[in-house]
Design a protein that fits this description.
Blueprint: H1 7-18, H2 24-31, H3 35-47, E1 67-74, H4 80-91, E2 96-101, E3 108-114, H5 117-130, E4 135-140
Antiparallel strand pairs: 1-3, 1-4, 2-3
Helix pairs in contact: 1-2, 2-3
């Protein structure tokens, strides 16, 4: 269920999404409020689950993770035991940045970040040795055109 937010909450969230490292004073100044009410609103939104953990966004290429693969997975297995094993395998692999279960012809899509194609092959070999998969298609991203963590408020 969606949480009710007013315009001030949305302004605060926009500032936090842009740069969560800003001081409360900076955020308060930008949204036209004072520090204490901003802190109280942030605390309430945290308690309500609107705001999750805070992280830093790292540059993958600067860290040598030059290859981004989108991995399309089809499976003939749909039992709970297989799914638990598959999900555990994905969660154990730091290369998997995102994993989604889909409707349609493809069962799952993964976003996998690795240094190069050889590293992707190692990831792929390890995954299929842990879990039986019917079909895997890997698509190499040639260029990242847009990537954002900002939600439309």
């Amino acid at each position: 269920m969606a949480v009710r937010l007013d315009d001030m909450d949305r302004k605060i969230l926009a500032e936090l999404q842009e740069d969560a490292g800003q001081s409360l004073d900076e955020i308060a100044r930008k949204v036209g409020s004072s520090k204490t009410p901003v802190w109280n609103r942030i605390r309430k939104m945290r308690e309500a689950g609107v705001i999750g953990r805070q992280t830093f966004i790292l540059d993958a290429e600067a860290l040598g993770l030059d290859a981004c693969f989108f991995v399309l997975i089809r499976t003939s297995e749909h039992e709970a035991e297989w799914q638990q094993k598959f999900l555990a395998a994905l969660r154990a692999r730091p290369e998997v940045q995102e994993a989604h279960r889909l409707a349609g012809e493809i069962d799952y899509i993964l976003k996998v970040r690795v240094p190069n194609a050889r590293a992707y092959d190692s990831f792929y070999q390890a995954l299929i040795s842990e879990v039986r998969i019917f079909n895997v298609t890997a698509l190499l991203s040639m260029e990242e055109i847009k990537s954002t963590t900002l939600l439309p408020l």
